[in-house]
Structures are given as C-alpha cells and as structure tokens.
C-alpha cells in the first residue's frame, strides 16, 4: 500500500480506501462484510469511508464492529451527514445545526469511536444558510469529535464559499468526495482546479463505474447472476446509466490495454483515477475478500503516457464530462 496526503493537510490516507456503500447492512451479510474489512486491513488499507445514510445507519454499525479490535490511531475513519436517516422527520436530513449536532453523536456511537478523522457534508444543502452549516461543523471540530471536515459532490463555487467560511472559523476543510472514473470526469474542468488552488484532495467514489469497468457486463447479454445490475435494492438503479451497448462496446476495447499493462480491468480502472495528482484516494467496495485484494494491487501503479492515450482513444465517445452534472438536491430530501 502507498499513502498520500489528503490535500495540503498533514493527514495521510491509503491510496485505496475501503467504503461500504451498497454493501454493509444491505447487500452483504455481516460475516462477509467483516471478512472484507479484515482483508482490507491485511492488505494495508487504513482509510475507511461510510455514511449515516448507508443502509439507514446500519453500515456505520457494521463498520464499527469490524474495526472494534483495531488500534484507533492506526486507521482513518470518514463518515458523512445530509441524507435522511431515522424515521424521516422534518429535521432528519440536511445540514441544519440540529441535524449535524445530533448526527455526529449518532455516528460516533455506531462507529464505536470518540472521533472521526473527516466529517463530510454528503451534499450541499440549498435550504440551510451555509454559515449555519459551517458553524456547526466548526463546533464539531472544536469539540474534538472530528479532526477535519470535507464535502461530497459540491460544485467549485460551493467549495470556494465553504472554504472561505472554514478559514474564518479556523477549521481544516481538506477534502471533496466526488464520483470519478474513466467514464465520469465531470470534476476535471472546475472542481479539480478549485480544489488544487484551495488545498483540497479528492477521495473518489465509483472508480470502477459500479463494476462496469471490470468488463463483466457484455454488450447484448444479460447481466451476470448476483451482480450489482441484478440487485433490486438500489444497485441496479445506480449502474443503469452504463448498461448500454455503446458504453459496453467501448469498455471492451480496454481489455487488451489492461492485458498489455499486466493488470486486470478493475486494476486498470482504479490505477487510472490515481494518476490524477489531485486524487488522494480511490474508494473501493467489495462483497468478497478477493475483490479487495484484486483492487489493492492498483496501489502504486504508474500508467505511462501511451497507456493513458490508449484508454482515452478507446472510450472517447462515451466519456461524461459536463461539469453541470455535479449537483445537489434543490430542496432538503425526505425519506420515500
């Protein structure tokens, strides 16, 4: 495993982070989830990402139990707040002070820890004054419940506004967590330059595009049994945008490129996002321990310019780049 600083902070994170969205507490039985976390630790992963909304808080509880016997100082735990949790009351979502202050305590209880390393705003809250949100985050940091703050899927303008307030409040705002992959590059034009200027690092999710970049989905064929595309609990919805023949035919062109580089398709995808110097870590998920080991092999891989050009040529017609696709809900979300 190799490690990178998270933005311009003094915090180091593992290049490969382990995340439990769509797995722990929902798709994967707890024994399998615990085995995946154990394998992640064995492979040198120290950075673990979760959120209170994942499986309506159950994912945090699973991760807390999985890390229960690990020296707390040896891992970095990241969680998030914004989406609805609990029964879905009027203040059970968003970035209002009430929800943030109650949510951090719930997350710490479920994670069985006194603090998280990074507490992240899971989206921008268009119904709450940003000053209120950042003041609440400042109190979380000053109380010792989080060392740093970060955001997820904020636009460049939102990041700039949040960063200005964070400086005034003297709290370290160090990261953004966007979707990013060979196929989804919407942060390149605006978010990455703003983050580089302000000292934020990216902790990217879905580097394998929900599994499409593994090559297991074939044009004109039914998705493999047990794959994310067959999961009615949310996995199928998230992967649907990629399951068309144009994308799958383009992805198939990556197979010889991966072979030439001595990598699996998944390793090539994870290694690709790590070539971006503003990316501090790539989050992987897993339902089986062997998936963790395969993806970890992408750590430290350096792709040469010819390989990077070949990747761009193979998928040129299906890459999504529109920066306007970094967006948060117009109104505070409710549950169902």
UniProtKB/TrEMBL annotation:
<protein>
    <submittedName>
        <fullName>Aldo/keto reductase family protein</fullName>
    </submittedName>
</protein>
<keyword id="KW-0521">NADP</keyword>
<comment type="similarity">
    <text>Belongs to the shaker potassium channel beta subunit family.</text>
</comment>
<dbReference type="InterPro" id="IPR036812">
    <property type="entry name" value="NAD(P)_OxRdtase_dom_sf"/>
</dbReference>
<feature type="domain" description="NADP-dependent oxidoreductase">
    <location>
        <begin position="15"/>
        <end position="314"/>
    </location>
</feature>
<keyword id="KW-0560">Oxidoreductase</keyword>
<dbReference type="InterPro" id="IPR005399">
    <property type="entry name" value="K_chnl_volt-dep_bsu_KCNAB-rel"/>
</dbReference>
<dbReference type="GO" id="GO:0016491">
    <property type="term" value="F:oxidoreductase activity"/>
</dbReference>
<dbReference type="Pfam" id="PF00248">
    <property type="entry name" value="Aldo_ket_red"/>
</dbReference>
<dbReference type="InterPro" id="IPR023210">
    <property type="entry name" value="NADP_OxRdtase_dom"/>
</dbReference>
<dbReference type="GO" id="GO:0005829">
    <property type="term" value="C:cytosol"/>
</dbReference>
């Amino acid at each position: 495993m190799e490690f990178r600083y998270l933005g311009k902070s003094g915090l180091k994170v593992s290049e490969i982070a382990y995340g439990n969205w769509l797995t722990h507490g929902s798709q994967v039985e707890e024994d399998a989830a615990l085995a995946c976390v154990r394998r992640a630790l064995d492979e040198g992963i120290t950075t673990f990402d979760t959120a209170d909304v994942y499986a309506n808080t159950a994912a945090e509880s699973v991760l807390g139990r999985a890390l229960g016997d690990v020296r707390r100082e040896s891992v970095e735990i990241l969680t998030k707040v914004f989406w609805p949790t609990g029964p879905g009351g009027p203040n059970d979502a968003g970035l209002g002070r009430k929800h943030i202050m109650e949510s951090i305590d719930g997350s710490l209880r479920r994670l069985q820890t006194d603090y998280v390393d990074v507490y992240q705003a899971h989206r921008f809250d268009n119904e709450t004054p940003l000053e209120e949100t950042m003041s609440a985050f400042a109190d979380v940091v000053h109380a010792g419940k989080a060392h740093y703050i970060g955001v997820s899927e904020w636009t460049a303008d939102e990041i700039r506004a949040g960063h200005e307030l964070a400086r005034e409040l003297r709290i370290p705002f160090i990261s953004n967590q966007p979707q990013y992959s060979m196929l989804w590059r919407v942060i390149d034009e605006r978010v990455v330059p703003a983050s580089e200027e302000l000292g934020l690092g990216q902790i990217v999710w879905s580097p394998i595009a929900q599994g499409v970049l593994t090559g297991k989905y074939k044009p004109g064929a039914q998705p493999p049994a047990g794959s994310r595309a067959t999961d009615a609990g949310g996995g199928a919805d998230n992967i649907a945008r990629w399951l068309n023949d144009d994308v799958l035919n383009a992805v198939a062109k990556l197979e010889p490129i991966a072979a030439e580089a001595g990598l699996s398709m998944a390793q090539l995808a994870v290694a690709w996002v790590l070539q971006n110097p503003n990316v501090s870590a790539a989050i992987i998920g897993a339902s089986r321990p062997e998936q963790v080991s395969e993806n970890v092999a992408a750590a430290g891989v350096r792709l040469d310019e010819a390989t990077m050009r070949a990747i761009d040529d193979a998928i040129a017609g299906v890459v999504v780049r529109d920066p306007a696709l970094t967006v948060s809900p117009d109104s505070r979300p409710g549950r169902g």
